[in-house]
Amino acid sequence: MTKVSKALTVAWEAVSAELGRSPGYYHRRLQLQISLPAYAGVVVPGNFRRLSFDFEELSLRGLNLQDQTQGYLVEIEQQIDKKRKFVHLQQTPAALPEDLFRIFCTDVLLHVANCGSESESGKTLRNRLEHWRRFFQKRTQGGLSREEYIGLFAEIEFFEMCLQRNLSPAILSDAWQGVLGGNQDFMFGEIAVEVKAVTANDAGFFHVSNLRQLDGTGLRHLFLSHFAYDFREGAGRSMTLLIQSVRTMLNSDPSALAIFDDRLVAAGYIEPDHSPFSGCGFTERRRSYFMVREGFPRILESSLAPGVFNVCYAVYLAACSEFVITETDLIGSLPR
Q1: Phi, psi dihedral angles at 54 (to 5 degrees)
Q2: Which residue, among 318, 277, 290, 139, has the nearest Cα to 222 in the 3D structure?
Q3: At what angle do helices 239-250 and 254-267 cross, to 10 degrees?
Q4: Cβ of 305: how many Cβ atoms within 10 Å?
Q5: pLDDT by residue (tens digit) across 6-37?
Q6: pLDDT digits (tens, 9 = 90+) for 180-203
Q7: How, if at all, do strands 191-199 and 84-91 pair?
Q8: Which end of the chain is more exposed for a tag (fewer CB within 10 A), N or C?
Q9: What is the C-alpha separation between 133 and 156, in angstroms, rounded?
Q10: Rounded-to-integer distance, Cα 198 and Cα 315, Å
Q11: Helix (H) and strand (E) counts for the chain?
C-alpha cells in the first residue's frame, strides 16, 4: 500500500510543480505493476487531483461507472482510438480531509492491480466505487452510528491485543479487511476472525448483519472475538487514547502504521474526531473467544430457501459455551 500511495503522491506533486496556465488535464503515467495503463494528474482550472485508467471499451460494457458523490466524481472519456476509453476519478470541491482522496485512489489502485485482465479490472473498479459511495454517503449522514462506533473500537482493541501478543505489525495491519468490505473483520489467509462488540444493556447476545460473517467456507479456521463494554459519557477509555496506543506500538513499522491509518479512514473515522460519541469512553466488562465450527449457532447462506436474502439475526452467548476457547488458543493459531 505504501508503494502505491507514494507513487500517487509523487506523481501529483510533480505534475503540480509543472502546471501550465491553460485549462486542461496535466498528467503522467504511474509506474506500477498493473493490468492496464493508469495516470495521475491535475485538472486546471481548480487544481483538482485525478486518477485515470485506460480501458478497452469492451471491458466496460455493461458497467455503469459514471457517477458523482461527495468527495469524488467519475467521468468516462472516449479516446481518439474509438476502441478505448478513459475512466477518470476526480476530486470534487467538497471540504474533505487532505489525504482522503489519496486514500480512496490508493485503495482503488491496489484492488485493480491484483486483477489479471481488463475485464476483471472493470468489475473490480465498479465494486470499489460502490464501496466508497457507501462510505461517503455515511459521512454525509453524520458519520458512524453508535453501533458502528462501538464496533470499530472493538476491532481496534483486538488489533492492540494482537500487537501486545507480538503478532507482526505488517501481517496484522494487512489482515484488517472488514473495513474494506471483507467477509470477516480480520483475514489471515485461510484463518479469519470476526469481532463483535456489545454494551452492558445487551451483553448477553450479539447481532449478525451479514450471513458470511460466520460462514467458514474456504477457511481452515474461523474465530469469533466478543467484547462487552460499559459505554458512558466521560468514563472509561476513549477511542482517541486507544488509537494513540496502537500508533505508538506501530511506530517502528511506518508501512504498517500507514496501512492502519488508511483503514481508520476507510472505516469512516476521520480526525479530529467530531463524532457525537467522542466524549464517551469504554470500560471493558468481558472478553470471550470462540471457534466457529460445525454446530455453532448460526444461519448459513447455503441453508436458505430460494428467494430469501438480506438476513440479520441475533445469537445468545449462552448457546455458544461449548465453542469457547482461550485468548492463547486464538493467538496461537494466527500467523506471526
Answers
A1: -105, 105
A2: 290
A3: 150
A4: 5
A5: 889 999 999 999 888 899 999 999 988 887 89
A6: 888 999 999 999 999 999 997 777
A7: unpaired
A8: C
A9: 24
A10: 12
A11: 8, 13
